[in-house]
Specification:
Strand 5 (147-150) and strand 6 form a beta hairpin. The termini are close together. This protein is globular. The mean pLDDT is 97. The chain contains 13 helices and eleven strands. The chain has one domain: TIM Barrel. Helices cover 44% and strands 16% of the residues. The chain has 318 residues and is an alpha/beta fold.
Length: 318
Amino acid sequence: MAAGPAIGYALSSEEHGPADLVRYAALAEERGFSYALISDHFHPWTDRQGQSAFVWAVIGAIAQATRTLRLGTGVTCPTIRTHPAIIAQASATAAALMPGRFFLGVGTGENLNEHILGDRWPEGSVRVEMLAEAIEVIRLLWQGGYQSHHGRHYTVEEARLYTLPDEPPDIMVAAGKPDAAKLAGKAGDGFIGTSPDAELLAEFDAAGGSGKPRIGQVTVCWAEDEASARKTALEWWPNAALPGDLGQELALPRHYEQASELVTEDAVAEKVVCGPDPAAHRAAIDEFADAGYDHVYVHQVGPDQEGFLDFYAREVLA
């Protein structure tokens, strides 16, 4: 794997409490992971997952618990429940705490997290338009000084960020469809994706993304035997097998639980690499590399994070 993509670690805020997330970040650094992405949710996908800490507090703790690990949000939605000016301040503070080690991952979000203040959940094209404007606001405030913005979706009046890093962090844009991939190429410093889709990366490149980093997420469930891994994957992450746009459109964890009643163990195992075979884990990573990703970060489903980290240190990172 030495010549392949850089391997990172996913910190799943939906499955682990804040103290555990900090501990796992430190363990990942010790085991040889060079970077991690931490999810930013208000709700977990299902009640079984059971967690959803405020990510910016956790990032502050991780900043003090690690020394070399690069950390990004995977991903933050800076458009509806949180105004982009607040994300600009939060991410600037994170970057000041982690000089050269923090990046901001952004995306168009999910109804699951964005409906909570009673705001409208707009159609996809509007969400991409909102994200484009939000990125403009964030970059504007990172310039320092008093700034104002009067746009279609956001207003900022004479706002100044006093705590700024020496260099602004990169903004990585998540995309699952062509219009978001084009935005990532035009307005982002890199791309985040959850499928090995070479066509999406081609859209990213054509819009200005050529030469910029692209980060893919692989979901796995390591266990000492495949049967245990499959059982854990179905119990903790059945949402992996939900089709189409359900991941963006359902509103509540119980809706995901209801939809997941139709999901089988075999269906989850088609989406999640299950078991202790290093070749299967490497093959999933290689699939993303073959599509054009130069970074791949790995989400271990379920509570056994330490076993996974030891396995990857021994069998995949080495």
